[in-house]
Structures are given as structure tokens and as C-alpha cells.
Amino acid sequence: MSxxxxxxxxxxxxxxxxxxxxxxxxxxxxxxISNSEINRPGLSLTGFFDFFAHDRIQIFGKGExxxxxxxxxxxxxxxxxxxxxxxxxCIIFTHGNRPSExxxxxxEELNIPLLIxxxxxxxxxxxxxxILNKALAPRTMRHGVLIEVFGIGILLSGKSGVGKSxxxxxxxxxxxxxxxxxxxxxxxxxxxxxxxTCSDILRHHMEIRGLxxxxxxxxxxxxxxxxxKLIELMINIEEWSEKVEYDRTGLDENFEEIxxxxxxxxxxxxxxxxxxxxxxxxxxxxxxxxxxxxxxxxEFNKKLANYIETKx
Length: 312
Known about the structure:
The chain is α/β, with parallel strands linked by helices. The protein has two domains: 131 residues, HprK N-terminal domain-like (Udp-n-acetylmuramoylalanyl-d-glutamate--2,6- Diaminopimelate Ligase, Chain: A, domain 1), CATH 3.40.1390; 157 residues, 3-Layer(aba) Sandwich (Rossmann fold), CATH 3.40.50.300. Helix content is 32%, strand content 28%. It contains nine helices and 17 strands. An eight-stranded mixed sheet has the order 14-11-10-8-9-15-17-16. Strands 2-7-6-5-4 form a five-stranded mixed sheet. It is elongated and about 85 Å long. The termini are far apart.
């Protein structure tokens, strides 16, 4: 799993909705941010630096700005010396408030980007938090095909040439939607879910042996693709082996861990006569029922146990 980062320059140049203006610290624009949380240093400005979250973007709202302006020059310099003794990525003042020359000089000396936005503090924190959560979410890459079947995001995996793309192609022809083929980029945005997507270069394309690269969106229409999807089920397609005992009851639930989250895993063996797309569709509908608390295998097992008990 790679550790995602984003530079101050990227935030400044690719997010005009933040209305950021760079005041000083041009040389520090390459500073990398790896923490998606932000910090309002109100308590630290009073001289209490225990637990100071210096590794986050520092947001100065109306309260922090007004407090700094209430300090005399000696006190302000003393606080600035302590505050800027920590390695900081960048400082942002909201409401269009301009910091004092003491703060500006310090950020200029230390090459710390100092920015101003006209947006209110609450709105700005909402916007920047959303940007950071998306950019810094833990991520990994998986070989496979991600497809949406009956609203369930299914990651098809298996050895190269086993038929993942062909299975996905038939599912698309049956009205389901492609998210990613070959390389799936997976990000974890919260404690309970992961999202799969595709790179801009490969998006909406599939590689089919014998056909080559095809554009699914152009062939089947815009309704046949989507840019991202929650991954709720993994299906590993593998060649049938007489030596392997496959699950026949559905009582034993298997999982695979992705980015620290356990995803339900099914193994479907292929051999002549097995219609894999229909099995995938059935697995999707069954997974949807399980989400609603309806587990067919467990209910059948319970009925069977009651029947045996009654007979005895």
C-alpha cells in the first residue's frame, strides 16, 4: 500500500474553487501534505503547544486572526518564534484576512507557503477536507475487472487468460456496467468501505484477446460504464480442479483483506457447460439479500436443523 501525498502547489493550481491567493513561500510550494485532517491552532497561539498538530494544514479563522491582532509586538514575536519552530506545510487565512508583517516575514524566511482565501472558515474547511480525503485516501492496485452488477460492485480476479474480461463483456451486454478492466485502483475513504476506479488512460476500455482494445462506452453507450464503485464482493474465477473441494452450501464465508478491510470472497470454478455471467449475476443478487439480512444458506441450515430435531 502506497502512502499518498499532495503538494501545496497542486492544491493551489488545480482547485480554483478554494479561491486561494499565495502571499509568500513560493519556494515551499513543493511541500508534501500526507495528513487529510486540518488544524486550527487557537490553543497553540496562547503558548500551549502540547499535542500541536504541526503536520496538518494550519487554518487561521476569524478568531485566530483577531487574537493575533490583539497581541503587542513583543508577545506576537514570542508566539511566532515558538509556532514556527515546528515544521509546517502551509498556513491559510480565511475570510480574506491578511496576517501581520511579523507572520509574513517568518513564512518568507522559512519558505512556508502563506495563503489567503475570501471563503468563510467553515465552508473552506468543508471544501479542503473533501479534497484531502480524496487525494490522500490509502490506495492500492489490483489486477482484475471491476463491474457493477445489480448495484453491487464486484471485483473479478483470476489468472491471466482465465476469462475475466470475456465474463465482464457478456455482463455488460446484459445491461451491467464496467468500472475498470485489467488494473483497478482501489482507495479506502472510510472505515467501512473501499472504492475502485480506473486510470484516465484506461477508463472505459477493455482488452479482449482476439479483438484487441475496445471502447465500451462507444460500443454499448454511456449507460454501460461508470467512473467508480464501492467494492462489496470479490469473485475469483479459476479453472476447475478435481483436487479442490468447492463450497456447496454457502455456510462457510470467505474474505480477502484489501487495505485493512475484509471483502466477501467467492471462488467460482470454470469448465464447459458453466455459465459464469449468470453465476456472477446470481452472486450479486445473493449478496444484496445478505446486506438486507437475508442469508439463504443459513436459513436453509436452520430449517434443516429444526426438521431433524423434530424428527428425533
